[in-house]
Amino acid sequence: MISLVKRPQPSKTWVVATPILAVIVTMILGGLLFAAMGKDPFVAIRTIFWDPLFNPDFAAYSRPQLLVKAAPLILIAIGLSLGFKAGIWNIGAEGQYIIGAITGASVGLAFYPMEAWYIFPLMVIAGALGGFLWGLIPALCKTKFNAPEILVSLMLVYFAEQIMISVSLGALRNPEGNGFPGSRNLAQYASSANPELIAGTGAHWGVMAAFAAVVAAYVLLSKHMLGFQIRVTGESTRAAGFAGINANRLIIFCLGTSGALAGLAGLFEVTGPAGQITTSFNTGYGFTAIIVAFLGRLNPIGILLAGLLLALTFIGGELAQFMLSLPSASIQVFQGMLLMTLLAMDIFVNYKVVWRKKEAV
Amino acid sequence: MTELLKLQGLTKAYPGVIANDDVGFSIAKGEVHALLGENGAGKSTLVKMIYGLTKPDSGTMTLHGETYVPTSPQAARAAGVAMVFQHFSLFEALNVAENVALGMENPPKMKDLAKSIRDVSQAYGLPLDPDRTVGDLSAGERQRVEIIRCLLQDPKLLIMDEPTSVLTPQEVEILFKTLRQLQSEGTSILYISHKLEEIRSLCDGATILRLGKVVGTCDPRTTSARDMAELMVGETLHIPTRDAKTSGAELLAIKDLNYAPKNPFGTRLKNLSLTVHAGEVLGIGGVAGNGQDELLSVLSGEARAQTGTVTLEGKEISKLGPNARRALGLLAAPEERLGHAAAPNMSLIENTALTAIIRKDLSKNSFINWTKTENFANDIIATFDVRTPSATAAARSLSGGNLQKFVIGREVMQDPKVLVVNQPTWGVDASAAASIRQALLDLAAGGAAVICISQDLDELMEISDHFAALNEGRLSTPRAAKGLSIDEIGLMMGGSDTASNTQTTEGVPA
């Protein structure tokens, strides 16, 4: 008979082991899925996980893509993880990402065609501020009216999307764009461009910001009072109240910070890889970052690795679609499997499996 | 008298502990049999086996002379064994009849059920209206719901697990009348308690458990409470003879406090006033749910009172938060250890930081000094003899007694001017309880004031200089603990300050 026995305290080994095990189980389940679709599972898994990095035919293009895709995921997920740790659920990072890109781009476009060193830093500040303010809306609704931040932040995504479409067609439309929707290309405007800093790596300013966020979050959570307050609140709101932690201030900090980081991610994207605000600027980083945050166990280092892993499945998934003509839906199922298996494996952190014979009477 | 239930050689082991070791006794038909023992003596395990919740490792039970092997509570009930638990399993949003129906396998129509509830409640002198919502009932009334739920099954054996722990002395009298009536009708009762006077006034026989073993049987009607207590704890009961201390300076004062809690099931504090002086222990008794949690939260700063109601050394603190109060020297230890006084999954080091950062100066520029925090955590562990592999162990991995020693130690070692504790020894084994009480006394001896909120009257009598009781959010006028009689205490707990011609309960503390 198999039974689960609760551990006296969470197992440190399993905290590390479960994500690795989850990846392996996902590969097996995904392989079965691909096999059921009539594809060679080994080739499919290799195409997703190995070819983007090491196949000489693709690596030159896809390897830099890894950091380009991982950076916004990590940047956003770091912000989300702060709130998630405290039980504050920002589901609307996608909206904060969009608004950050719009406010940042607006500042850059306002200076066009002037060239000056300070334009890009101003855009960075505007992007962070835009995301911060957008994140503050659910925070204030929560603290003033006790409105659930999950719903408010999620609804604001669709609101942000409408603003994005509106400005692509109106306020920010490129006057020299022959009437096509979309802003001027910021990547081609020297003062606002966010170029690759080290050739061949894909590392732009956003990648630097993502690494800085990982380090900052690590220090915040392990050493700083605020990080401690976040962790206590997530553990028990009553214990947090007893410790004198101001819940409202924490809600504002967590939603504001995650909004600002998502806004930054949007700004770095619009000034670099995307280049312009269009009607379809957002590609779901804000939602995928939720998976990254959990896959990384809400731990900054874990999120760094999870962001890279998920970016890899994106790039490899695209490659598999292209090379093996796998449908994109199957790649999404595969990514969903990853989260599901991780959540399922979670049980081993707090419980251990015991095999025992039937109890003697 | 004929034998109803006979237990022989019952043994049940859990990993690391033998909860019951070769336990055997028998209960006669119509007997009220007491099962006596301290917390952790194995009483709960034993009745769980009788009620079919766990299976014994070895040993036999016979009921009506036949082998009795209950595989589930349903089977136990079918055999005529019913149980009233210490913690009620009732839905607050449903009414009495609906709650009773939920526990039945084939509930009759609501109308018929309501009628039978009324009949039983009248027959046994337990007033209860089947249409009332359980959320509005007092603890005593909720217990009646549970008892009537059992009586509707017409049980041969009724198990009651510490039924009086939630009752006032006056409610206890009503319950005892009911139990005596049941006894006269031939129902046997297995009565679990560690309150000796109750057992002496109610029970015909007693089995005393200590550390899982039967250490004695006696006739409680002829055995003195002191003798039973000695069997139960294995040592002598101490009688407090201290004089009340009032000489110190006034430290904390509450004046005409009115407070409505946010929680709709909470208790409103009404016109509450008290003062404590340096070196004084003020004991606050009362049945659970009469405003204890609310009083603690108003003092800890988790809840804010109106301006001008709470002062510390003459300084107005009614609107200050927990950390501002800590800075001034007012510390607190709430009742709920896991999830209120400590964060369950966090280490003892982190749980030290929970309340000690300000007074022990454990941070600099908002960065926590974890080395210093760990040192202080280790100090607490060493001074208060907290049994744990290390300070990095999660709070929830500690036993209740050890975690409680840690929680109390964490506050005591911050040198408070005033310490407020709620149920400091609840669910704690005897030796840990004794050391916690001693720590509180030492703290007061050192010039601090201690407010101890507790439902354990023996504990309050042991450590208090002054005693008051909470009843429906009102606090009786504090009186010197020395010389108080159990009657006076009962009246204070029941909400009337002055003794008059009320019916008195039996017995005087040994």
Tell me about this structure.
The complex is a heterodimer of chains A (361) and B (510). Chain A is an all-alpha fold and 361 residues long. Chain A has a domain at 61-311: Orthogonal Bundle (ABC transporter involved in vitamin B12 uptake, BtuC), CATH 1.10.3470. Chain A contains 15 helices and two strands. The model of chain A has no long low-confidence stretch (mean pLDDT 91). Chain B is an alpha/beta fold. Chain B folds into three domains: 3-233, 3-Layer(aba) Sandwich (Rossmann fold); 244-329 and 416-499, P-loop containing nucleotide triphosphate hydrolases (Rossmann fold); 338-415, no CATH class. In chain B, strands 13, 16, 19, 20, 21, 22 and 23 form a seven-stranded mixed β-sheet that branches. Chain B is globular and about 70 Å long. The two termini of chain B are 31 Å apart. Chains A and B meet through helix 9 and helix 10 of A and helix 10, helix 11 and strand 18 of B.
Observed structural traits:
A: 361 residues, mainly alpha, ABC transporter involved in vitamin B12 uptake, BtuC, 3% strand, B: 510 residues, alpha/beta, Rossmann fold, 3 domains, six-stranded mixed beta sheet, 23 strands
Topology:
The complex is a heterodimer of chains A (361) and B (510).
Chain A: E1 2-6, H1 12-36, H2 41-49, H3 51-54, H4 59-85, H5 93-111, H6 119-145, H7 149-169, H8 205-223, H9 225-235, H10 237-242, H11 247-271, H12 285-295, H13 300-324, H14 328-345, H15 347-350, E2 351-355
Antiparallel strand pairs in A: 1-2
Helix pairs in contact in A: 1-2, 1-14, 2-13, 4-8, 4-9, 4-11, 4-12, 4-13, 5-6, 5-7, 5-11, 5-12, 6-7, 6-11, 8-9, 8-11, 8-13, 12-13
Chain B: E1 3-14, E2 17-28, E3 32-36, H1 43-50, E4 58-63, E5 66-67, H2 73-78, E6 81-84, H3 96-102, H4 110-123, H5 139-151, E7 157-161, H6 169-184, E8 188-193, H7 196-202, E9 205-210, E10 213-218, H8 225-233, E11 250-259, E12 269-277, E13 281-285, H9 292-300, E14 310-312, E15 315-316, H10 322-328, E16 330-333, H11 348-356, E17 363-364, E18 367-368, H12 370-383, H13 400-412, E19 418-422, H14 430-445, E20 449-453, H15 457-463, E21 466-471, E22 474-475, E23 479-480, H16 486-494
